[in-house]
Write a structure and sequence with these properties.
It is globular, with a radius of gyration of 23 Å. Strands 9, 10, 11, 12, 13 and 14 form a six-stranded antiparallel beta sheet that branches. Strands 5-6-1-7-8 form a five-stranded mixed beta sheet. Strands 3-2-4 form a three-stranded mixed beta sheet. It contains 15 helices and 14 strands. The protein is of the alpha+beta class. About 40% of the residues lie in helices and about 20% in strands. The chain has three domains: about 160 residues, Reverse transcriptase/Diguanylate cyclase domain (Alpha-Beta Plaits); about 60 residues, Orthogonal Bundle (DNA polymerase, domain 1); about 150 residues, Dna Ligase, domain 1 (2-Layer Sandwich), CATH 3.30.1490.100.
Length: about 400
């Protein structure tokens, strides 16, 4: 163990709680936030809805069966990202070491903050009270010697909880804790560990490393350390994060589509969204990936590697259409995604042909207009038929600044 003091702040039912604060008529009622009214899953459910069994990821028909009085609210992504960015600013008042883990949770390294504030418990109450006073929202806070245990602690008392795990409590807390409660051990890994007779973190921490390494490779050693509550990973502020390796967007369609013409129009919209974000932050990429999800939720991806780095919408679109032309689609399509990867940062592509330079200048002019007046203020005529027809969900990789700050609708 070490002497670090790490805090994990997890906003409670964030999207639904923001909606309830924005509309007093929703307070105390079962509410669920969805990507669109007809075609998506539950993104977040209020605690009133959770009492009926409504869960994140549940299909809408199932959620309505669980709670006939459930109120479905289309996601207001601009509002959620705005509130999240303001909450993150509050974190920075207490330490510069803030890692945004997702739009509704973050890690704070408070090891150097105690001389100013006296105790981590006081810092936790200050943060909780400021968030409550300004936004009317609650959060659950976990404090521990490392990120692994801090996240575990924040899950122990919800909503509006505060849990502190000290170094001398770690062994007791983990001894009978189911392995699935640890962040990083998913259902598949837990199933494999269960088959080895490992049910609790205490058992995992004592299990022979050589056996786990033979089953899981180098991850086996990491699993034993997790069972012992050991985690040396630092809190990484945004300006110290590794360079982003991909830029992508996906959308759940309002209805299933099947013809190449319909699919192509949505791919053009996605290509424009990916290209605009790449150009805004000065990156280009060589690998284009198309993701398709069928109506039965079967999902697959195919990619194509370009000869040169690209970032223009037309280049991305042509590449993704080539991938589409090589696919034999056997079902109607529910979701589409486009991703640009193998990125080169801060490099401008030198175009030799006059027509290519003109196209680049036109694209730059369109981007400047859309940056000033909003996404798709100016667009290809083909996009007029599809704009706003998809369900856009905020990626867990969202950040309040930089290339991961997706322009949401």
């Amino acid at each position: 163990m070490n002497s670090r003091l790490i805090m994990h702040v997890d906003m409670n039912a964030f999207f639904a709680s923001v909606e309830q604060q924005s509309n007093p008529a929703l307070r105390g009622r079962p509410v669920a936030v969805v990507g669109s009214q007809q075609r998506t899953i539950i993104l977040t459910a209020s605690y009133e809805a959770r009492d009926y069994g409504v869960k994140t990821g549940m299909r809408l028909d199932e959620a309505r069966r669980q709670c006939p009085a459930l109120r479905l609210i289309p996601a207001n992504n601009r509002l959620y990202t705005h509130v999240s960015a303001q909450i993150i600013r509050i974190f920075h008042d207490y330490t510069p070491l803030v890692e945004v883990f997702s739009i509704d949770e973050g890690f704070l390294d408070l090891s150097g903050s105690l001389q100013l504030y006296g105790s981590v418990r006081r810092i936790a109450y200050l943060i909780k009270s400021r968030i409550k006073a300004r936004f009317g929202l609650t959060c659950s806070v976990g404090i521990a010697p490392n990120k692994l245990l801090a996240k575990l602690a924040s899950e122990m008392k919800k909503p509006d909880g505060l849990t502190i795990i000290t170094e001398d409590q770690v062994a007791e807390v983990l001894e009978d804790l189911p392995i699935g409660a640890i962040c990083g051990i998913g259902r598949k890994t837990a199933y494999k560990l269960n088959r080895l007779g490992i049910q609790t973190c205490g058992q995992l921490g004592r299990f022979p490393v050589r056996i786990l390494k033979s089953r899981f490779g180098v991850v086996g050693e990491r699993l034993v350390m997790m069972g012992q509550g050991i985690d040396s990973s630092p809190v990484v502020p945004q300006d110290q994060e590794p360079a982003v390796k991909t830029v992508g967007h996906s959308m759940t369609l309002k209805r299933d589509v099947q013809t190449r013409e319909e699919i192509g129009r949505f791919l053009l919209q996605l290509s424009e969204m990916v290209g605009r974000r790449a150009r805004r932050y000065g990156v280009s990429g060589r690998t284009v990936t198309l993701t398709v999800r069928y109506a039965d939720f079967t999902t697959f991806s195919r990619q194509q590697i370009q000869q040169n780095d690209i970032c223009l919408t037309e280049q991305i679109y042509r590449s993704v259409l080539k991938i589409l032309d090589n696919l034999l689609l056997t079902q109607p399509v529910r979701l589409l995604g486009v991703r640009l990867s193998s990125l080169q940062h801060h490099q401008r592509q030198l175009l030799l042909l006059p027509e290519d330079r003109k196209r680049q200048q036109l694209t730059r002019a369109l981007d400047q207009v859309n940056d000033r007046y909003g996404e798709f203020t100016l667009m290809s005529a083909d996009l007029l038929q599809v704009k706003g027809k998809g369900s856009h969900v905020i990626s867990p990789a969202w950040r309040p600044e930089g290339i991961r700050n997706v322009g949401v609708q």
